[in-house]
Amino acid sequence: MEEQREREYSELDDAAIEKLIEDGELRKALEAIKVQVDRDVANGADFVNEARIHLAFLDGIAAEASLERASEAGVPKDEVALLLARALMLQNDAIRAKEVIWKAELLGDMAFEATILKGDIEKELGDQQGATYFYRLAIDKRPDDFRGYLGLSMLALGQGKLSDAEEWAAQAASKVEDDSIVRYVRGTVARYQRRFEEAEAHLRQSVQLHSANLLAYFELAALLIETGELEKANLVLDEVYKRAPDSPMAQYYSALALAVGGNLREAEHLLLRVGDLTRRYPPAARAYGHVLFQLDKFSTARPYLERVLARIPSDRLTRLALAECLTRRGDAARALGVLNPLLEEGAVDLDARFQEAAAYGALGNLPEVRRALADARAIAETMGDEGDERVNALSQRLALTRFLDGDRDGAIDELKGYYSEGPKDKDGLMLLANMQLEAGDVEGAEISAGEIAALDPEGAESANLLGAVRLRQGRYEEALLFLDAAIKRNPEYQSALKNRGLAYMGLSRFEEASADLEILVSNGGQDGQVLGMLGRVYLELERPAEASKYLKVAADIIPQSAIIATDLAEALAQSGYRSSAVSQARLARRLASRDPALEAYIDGLIAKWNQEEAEEAALEAQRRQEEREKLAKQREDMEKARQAIIDEAAAQGQEEGAKADTEDSDEEEPPKDGADDSDEEDKPKEEGA
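^ thats the sequence. predicted structure below, dont judge the formating
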């Protein structure tokens, strides 16, 4: 069966292959060309047709490779210049495309098509005037040809001029009976005008007129994804995969559907497989940038969002996402510049005002934060029921920024005034109660906590706030009753656990305090206060190594805390590192410059440790002196013993020497008179020389 099909394909001539292409049988035509290439019977026309198919599949790289083979097979370069320029445009290489098309010598229909393509190239290069010139030139050359009008429609669409785009598209439609490309453009314009039903009708008609019009399939899929009809979108993409199984564009839209459906990780992985499509196709870059943004990958998302915004300045969502990326990555000043078009006088963009407030907050400019939030609240107040919740949230934010700016009484009065006029909500009352506690208004905080309890009798928040009030009053046993109740209602309530730890510390019940604080730390918390409290508890429990461990981390998180710095000094001293403790205490002394009592306490610690250091140094010096004297005595005794040995050996040597001399003198005494000397006479005489 396979051999028969290959034989049939090998017998197809150029006209038959072109007929397959016109009928939309692109995969079949491509297989036929491949068979002819494999059998070494392909000619230049086959490679040109192969390029046309790749262009239909929006694969510019493969199309360029086919055209190179066509040139090698003898096809003149001018004949394929249009196709090559389109292939380069698909690769986002408008500069090379311009070089190719400007050098080509084209006549007749090819010259007219080149005029349209020159407009496309100038549009891609950002030269709107140049693009307009060539599209209008095409209209002047052939007023009854729809393509010049279509080019102006797409140009207006890219500029956000939707009414102009619709007008030019209508003129294009009037110049042709019914055309797939015209339907595609009209559907695209209708989609951007949010006339979704009309857009879908145009796009479905487009693919019926020409089933190989993948652009129409993709625009239809985009429309269905935008309107939340993900299953229908996937059915449309299935039609594309039948015609182009490896289409990067189809994969992009599948990823877009996944992202809209909340499957961000899968969407990211699929977008990674589309090759350089995210570089050369702006919508793919936009989708990838927004997916990365939603995954909090702000540094990676930024260049994609910048590229999209440079191309489509009217893209509001991309502008907002880029501004947040910049603020999150420490470039809030530039974020404000990006937001400017959405903040012009008379603008009513609530999200942009929120982003503005966040950027000024990152810059530490609290007055501008308040101004931006006030503008946002003014916008929200015009939104009716939809804006009530946001007005409430903005009122809380405004009061909070006022509080942080140092006007504590004004912030509290602002919130109290707001809740006296409108309905109360738990979150706002909790903010008010915490402000009151921070400002020392314990009675006011207790009243606010009672109002929270009235709104939510079974909630843990009111019990925790009442426990915090009792802590401020130093009534630790009563605080424990409220805090136990809060934790019983919500065992993972971190604020209540922290407050109960403080209550236990106030009662010197350090083992119980450590149990609550260890829960908070074991959950991965990096609250500097909690770490400092746990370090203090370990210090009281005489576990200095553990105390030092947590106090060092706490000091890194809250480097300006004199209390934590002092506790760390004590932990070092307990561990025996008194010299380091003194250095740490001096640092704590500088931090405590506004707390005379703490300064005096630290001075006492430093004096105590210095005295202990001096006493230890004196004892050490005495010990070393005694050690030196002991060693000197040992050396003296050893020297005496060594000398005694030497002396004894010398004396013994003299005695033995004297004895030896005596024995030698006895052996060498000359013979007496009359002694027998016959042995001498018996010796032989030496002979002469």
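The mean pLDDT is 84.
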